[in-house]
């Protein structure tokens, strides 16, 4: 609750800060279609879990929904709020025994699955080194990733289908350096960042870049790339569950600047 109050207060103060400090706002609509690979193994809520998203379930990107982002970028700090989601679909004949939320599918079983991944980003950038056209700063924020998996399995004898549902949330702190450049009076803007976390044996890496071009002062286009990696051994952050996830992709969008 305290975090929500602080966030609301910061957002309420942004218009005044932007006017006083010469900052600008960005509102964009974008699409990003990252690859998704990884595994879950152990127990969750007392249910056994042992599956690989690609090697077992054959999950691949199916569709993406339009994402939105709202940013304030000023000379001393920046703030980013964004959200987007992707759908993945898989169909596979298993070559080993797989367990999803306590439901076991034997080798040679036909398993059809879908997964929805939703991402939420809150990022605060403090710019502590500033020169004309460039800056160096520190990112402080959080990126939340929610996975919702549904699977239906049929074994090779055509038995009654077995349903399984698995959910996972991975809110990760975003801490690390970021750098930005602008040129041609702000028509081109480039930002890069690297976020890293090592806590209780779990590691997280997140790197990316964002390039924007504004043919008009108020309207531009955006291209961005990012790559993420979670390594969460059992008995680290997640007590009974070993998690490994890798995600990377390229996105494009249209940006309003005001």
How would you describe what is shown here?
With 258 residues, the protein is mainly beta. The protein has one domain: Lipocalin (Beta Barrel), CATH 2.40.128.90. 8% of the residues lie in helices and 71% in strands. It has a ten-stranded antiparallel beta barrel. Strand 13 (202-216) and strand 14 (219-232) form a beta hairpin. It is elongated, with a radius of gyration of 21 Å. It starts with a helix and ends with a strand. Residues 1-10 have low confidence and may be disordered.
Set out the fold topology:
Elements: H1 2-21, E1 24-32, E2 35-44, E3 47-52, E4 60-64, E5 67-73, E6 77-93, E7 98-100, E8 103-105, E9 110-131, E10 134-154, E11 162-183, E12 188-199, E13 202-216, E14 219-232, E15 241-257
Antiparallel strand pairs: 1-5, 1-15, 2-3, 2-15, 4-6, 5-6, 6-9, 7-8, 9-10, 10-11, 11-12, 12-13, 13-14, 14-15
């Amino acid at each position: 609750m305290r975090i929500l109050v602080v966030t609301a207060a910061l957002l309420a103060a942004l218009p005044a800060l932007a006017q006083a400090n010469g900052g600008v706002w960005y509102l964009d609509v974008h699409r990003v279609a990252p690859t998704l690979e990884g595994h879950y193994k152990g127990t969750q809520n007392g249910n056994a879990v042992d599956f690989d998203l690609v090697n077992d379930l054959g999950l691949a990107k199916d569709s993406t929904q339009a994402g939105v982002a709202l940013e304030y970028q000023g000379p001393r700090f920046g703030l980013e709020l964004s959200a987007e989601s992707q759908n993945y679909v898989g169909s596979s004949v298993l070559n080993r025994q797989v367990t999803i939320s306590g439901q076991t599918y034997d080798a040679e079983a036909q398993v059809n699955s879908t997964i929805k991944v939703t991402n939420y980003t809150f990022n605060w950038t403090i710019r502590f080194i500033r020169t004309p056209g460039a800056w160096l700063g520190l990112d402080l924020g959080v990126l939340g990733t929610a996975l919702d998996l549904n699977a239906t399995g049929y074994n090779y004898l055509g038995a009654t289908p077995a349903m399984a549902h698995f959910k996972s949330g991975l809110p990760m702190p975003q801490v690390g350096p970021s750098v930005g450049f602008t040129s041609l009076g702000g028509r081109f803007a480039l930002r890069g960042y690297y976020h890293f976390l090592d806590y209780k044996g779990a590691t997280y890496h997140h790197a990316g870049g964002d390039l924007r071009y504004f043919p008009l002062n108020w309207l531009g286009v955006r291209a961005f790339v990012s790559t993420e990696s979670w390594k969460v051994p059992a008995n680290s952050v997640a007590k009974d569950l070993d998690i490994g996830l890798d995600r990377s992709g390229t996105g494009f969008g249209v940006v309003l600047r005001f």
